[in-house]
Amino acid sequence: MREPLTWGLPLFRLFGVRIKIHVLFLLVVIGLILRMALAETQAIAWTDLVLFWGVLLFVIVLIHEYGHVFAARSVGGDAREVMLWPLGGFASVDVPWNPRAHLVSAAGGPLANAILCLVIALVILAAGYWPNLDPFSNPFVAELKSYRDGRIYTSHYGLRFYPSENGAMEESPLRPWERGMFHDFEMVPRVKMERAIAPTWIVWLHRAFYLSWLLLLFNLIPAYPLDGGRMLQSFVWSRSDYEQGATIAGYSGFVMGGLFLILAIAINESLLLALSIFMFFEAWRLAYWEPEARGAFGYDFSAGYTSLRFDEENEPQTVRKSWWQRWREARQARQRKREQEQLARDEARMDELLDKIARCGKEALTEEERRFLERMSARKRNMS
């Protein structure tokens, strides 16, 4: 409970990965539902709010995180668990200590969102509509332009009226400004108008597309720990070294945090303010902590525990350390302890599997056990 980033509730296991949901994810979802339900501008049904923020968002974020999981496995790594939290989620992955593996692992999440967007867009196109690529549009109104008749169709929350396709006429009462022109009439013929309502299944497909598209664009922002920041770090690392990549990604995070802070103040948005503060903190942590303690095991947004390489220099202290230095060293000590405990558990499990092979043969291993042994072998080669 000392690390706030580990405050998660276990849900289930899928594809050999433990799924947890962060307490903040639940709090933010509840807050978003209440904010939109109590808004005076437009009333949204509770069922739609719960399905959108509570169910659909969960599924889209989970798909994003499994993109990281499968990407990590494609480069010889694996994942232990996925934590879903307000900014999406983060997969605790174990990948080889090289920039390519880290870049592929970081790109897996946005790639999963891109594939999902492509599939949904093709279905929407087949139904006769253009996908709405505007990330600032209202997903509950769900404006979709038809390429068949040029009309913009919406959900029942939208108000789009068009003349009847068959040109039908109807009698309607005089409007106040028309009474002087048609004083001899109480009713006048008018062209019948009708609302352009999109089918419900198309509306919800659009909402899934919207969330996946928004998550894709958001995670491409070059600010750590977003995927864009991690990809930037890996790219610079491939052309220099890890510390330089961490520094550049950290400075990029400072810039993006400043832009989000300006935007939050300009539009009076508390969520953007919290996001900007988080970006500042993570940028500072990455730029100034990572060179000293790279690869924090657990939920420190590092790349995985094949990066457990600490430069332990026991230099004598000539002055009393500040409370901040003592807190940071204690935090790093807890991280190292967790890493050592995990390594000990992995070594014990490897011994059990080797004993199983000696007794029953390699064919007795499950697929997950084979991947575990391959991962341990790769780790030993990297650390040798």
From TrEMBL:
GO terms for molecular function: metal ion binding; metallopeptidase activity. The chain crosses the membrane at residues 21-38, 44-63, 110-130, 208-226, 246-265. InterPro entries: DUF6576 (IPR046483), Peptidase_M50 (IPR008915). One of its GO terms (biological process) is proteolysis. Residues 55-256 form the Peptidase M50 domain. It is a multi-pass membrane protein. It comes from the Bacteria. The keyword Hydrolase applies. The keyword Membrane applies. Residues 344-378 form the DUF6576 domain. Its cofactor is Zn(2+). Keywords: Coiled coil, Hydrolase, Membrane, Metal-binding, Metalloprotease, Protease, Transmembrane, Transmembrane helix, Zinc. It is found in: Membrane. GO terms for cellular component: membrane. Residues 336-363 form a coiled coil. Belongs to the peptidase M50B family. This is Peptidase M50 domain-containing protein. It comes from Thermogemmata fonticola. The lineage of its organism: Bacteria, Pseudomonadati, Planctomycetota, Planctomycetia, Gemmatales.
